[in-house]
Structures are given as structure tokens and as C-alpha cells.
Amino acid sequence: MDKLIRVMLVEDNVEYREVIRLALQQETDIELVSQFGTSEIGLRSLQQASESELPDLILLDLRLPGMDGLESLPRFRQSAPQAKIIILTQSNQQQDVLRAIALGASGYLLKSARLSEITEGIRMVAQGGASLDKGVAMYLLESLQQKQSKSDANNLLTDRELEILTLMADGFVKKEIAARLKIGYSTVDTHVAHIYEKLQVTNGPSAVNRAHRLGIFS
């Protein structure tokens, strides 16, 4: 028989606590060992518990009375270092997702998830994996892709080309740019041609506009 996964639930909604209790009651490898309505009470219970009484996994809501889930997450990790934490919340706000993961959550599930998804998420995280709501996972993927695209864009132009494009954005023409940078007009002309080629545009305004859209300019 697989090791029993001992779960603590921190959730202020009594009815939803009961839903989770009944769902976990049906699982032979998961046991709900404690449930609390606030982070403060949950943390206090961990401080008073012996090592053998500590949970393997904590289901933590974000919107809690008193200390919210994001504030208490690091404290739960400190009080029960071996316990994995899954955020179980209604919030699909991007900042909540990123903050929770940055603070050490191993999973982020929405309360709209099916109970089978929650139990499978518990098993996955307990085994050392991660569990993310499908919508949350898609957002993180898109966020990483955008960061990668921006990184690629930042490496697209040389320092001199970026310098010239910045001056173009400020309204300087090629002759003025040459004088300002103390380089020849033909050199500026060559750099501008390379800028147009790399950004796949045919004129200055289009180059500036595309640089903004790619995140080359802040």
C-alpha cells in the first residue's frame, strides 16, 4: 500500500471545507488530518504539533480572514518545511499565481476544478511534481513565451543600431545622428538599412513603432 498522504486544509468557507472533506474521505491514499478557517489557527496547530503529526501537504486558500494565503504561505513553509503547499482558491489573477509560485507553492488549483483534479493534484505534488489549473498553466506558458520574445528582441539589434534607432525615435534625421555620434553619414545610412532589415520594415516611423511593440523600447 502506498504511503498515506496527510493533508491539512486551510479554508474559511465551511461548506467548501465539507466538500473537500467528503471528497478526500473517498480516497484510500489521502487523509484529511486537520482543517482550519484561518491561517493563524493553522499555524498555531503546526507549532504545537509533534513531527509525526505534521501534514505532508497543505491545501491553502488565498482569500482568508486575517492573514491571507500569500502572507501566510512562507510561514507555513517555515513551520512545516517538509510539507508541500497547493493553493486552492477562486482567484485566477495573474499576480496571485506568480506570487504564490514565487513564494514556494507547488501547485495552484482553482475551486472550479473537478474534485478528481484536486485529488490527482494532491498525489502529483506529494510525489514531488507540480499541479496547475489548466488555465493557470496556459497563462504561465504565454507569460514565458512573451518574456522569451522580448529577450530575443533585445538581442536583435547591436548597441550602435539601438543607439541610432533611439535617436530616430527622438526625431533626429540621419545627418543629425551622424553629427551627434561623430560618425560618417554613410555609416549611419548603413546602420539604418540593417535596422530596417532586422525589424522587417521600410521606413523610420515603422521601425520605431515595431521596436515599441517588440519591447525593445521600454
From TrEMBL:
It comes from the Bacteria. Pfam families: GerE, Response_reg. SUPFAM superfamilies: C-terminal effector domain of the bipartite response regulators, CheY-like. Keywords: DNA-binding, Phosphoprotein. The modification 4-aspartylphosphate is found at D61. Residues 150-215 form the HTH luxR-type domain. CDD domains: LuxR_C_like, REC_NarL-like. Residues 6-126 form the Response regulatory domain. This is Transcriptional regulatory protein LiaR. The gene is liaR_1.
